[in-house]
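To whoever is covering the structure queue this week,

Two jobs came back overnight. Logging them here so there's a record in the thread.

Job A:
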Amino acid sequence: MSLRVLVADDSALFRRAISDALSSIPDVDVLGTAQNGKLAVQKVIELKPDLLTLDIEMPEMDGLAVLDALKQAGSNTSVMVISALTLRGGRLTMQALDKGAFDFITKPQGKSASESREMVVRELAPRLRALAHRRQIQNILRPGRGGIGAAASPAPIPVAVPEARRTSLQRLPGKTPDLVLIGVSTGGPMALARLLPSIPKDIGVPIVIVQHMPPVFTQSLAESLSSKCQLRVREAVDGDKLEAGLVLIAPGGRQLRLLSGPDGQMQVQITDDPPENNCKPAVDYLFRSAANNLAGRAMAVILTGMGNDGTLGLRLLRRHGCFTIAQDEATSVVFGMPKSAVDAGLADVVLPLDAIAGRIWATVKGRGS
């Protein structure tokens, strides 16, 4: 079954580039385009596409107003934001994700039309496959759901755990952790916006997060989360020391690792090392450094996201006795990274998103389950 897509952008150049890129992806049908937000809302209601690619800064009605209008209309259309790679673009994108957008990509900056089209295809194709799978599950199990805001409050979907892994899923934490590590990708801003505000400010340990994002956007993410949380949240900078109650987010386009500073206190090092798993920042890069420098003293959480980043790092952490949590399929926007961890037998417990903060708190405070 084809994924039916509507393209909304006030630039004719970008409308053509995105439409051409989408048309080259198998099982994607471009229904049409809209040059402003008001027309985009009208066409979504009329054509009922599966996906709307949405420019945020448009005349008549901007992208945020479009999201509000679609939610009010009860639209079942998912939204993919096409954002400018600027600080303003990052902030607007965080607001769009808060309003229920499925995910985002940045506007192509290729030197030619063909290069820009290839960039869009590379970014969109895996996201569209993930969206198609997600909508298929929603259409089968929850008719009428799957559009604006649906990913934020999904109904339970049973997750079958193979017999061979059930013993692993019952393992309780050993040592009380001194640090919480979180790896997340697609659907991450919404997941973090629900998880972190549920963690009290007196958690007593630092939290370090890798969220797959380009430069600039992680700063906007940190600002957005900081406004919602009791915890202190900011984008990490080189040399940051790990402090209780401080949440550090790896900067987009850089790698983050942990090491012991001159005074013996753990600190952050930001590097320009190559991508891992096609990701920069990479979850494996962070997890591996924690396994090497904080043996048995960290706990790790894998949340929604595409691919398998974090799985190799989890393997190293568990060898040192670290406790691990994976988000379940029912509450994941994309059950890729958590599934990879679960399939490898590396998740000590698989939980719905809203149960994870409580398990983090219990584990850090030495209360087991």
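Job B:
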Amino acid sequence: MTNVAQRSIAVLAGLLLAPAAWAAEPAEVPLETVVQAQMTADKEASASQARVNDIDDETRELLQKYNQLTAEAESMTGYSDHLALTVQSQVEEIALVEKQLVEIEDTAREVMPMMQRMLDRIDRFVELDLPFQLAERRERVQKLKDIMGRADVTISEKYRRIVEAYQIELDFGRTLEAYDDKLLGDPEGRTVKFLRMGRVVLAYQTLDGKETGYWDAEKKAWVVDDSYRQAVKDGFEVALKMGAPELLVLPVPAPREFKPESKS
């Protein structure tokens, strides 16, 4: 190869290598551009962190609301279950009350006639018994008659009062009592002292002690018999606890045959 040719190749190679060499040399960037780019990057990073923080706060808030709603849902579920049990209990209680009302109606249909018979019997008994404290006893029976037709008085209360009246009448049969009252059927309407020994003897004595008598159950009338004056006087002292209990000789009616009531 000639020298001319060699120089041509060297020049061509130099030309070809020159751009590569130029490109390898670092380009000089202004400082302001670098600072500006760094500031922009910092701003974008700060903005990104702020968005991350906002998302994190929002996520926490949503999680808190979720937990709160979940707790409320569980509470409502428990309350709903409790209400369901309460409603079921009330339904059962209503059914029981309705059943009891039916039973009460059935019982009322059976008990009311029985109580009416009891009332009729005690009314008749008072009228046939010894005539002691008749005003009080008749008033008690009349009150029973009055409440029998009242709807505001329960069946149990009606029955209780009838039984109470029976108990009072029963107690009369085992007590000794002295009291003042009008002499039944007396034309003068005198007030006398009465002596009642159970349901066996009912005697009286005038307040001045001059007249003594007793009720004759067979004759249904008062019989004057002053021979019992001292016995009746002693009976007053025993009844009023002013004297010691002692044997009293008083007119006792003879026992009679019991005749049961006929069923109609």
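Note for Job B: The longest strand covers residues 176-182.

Please reply-all if you pick these up so we don't duplicate work.
Q.
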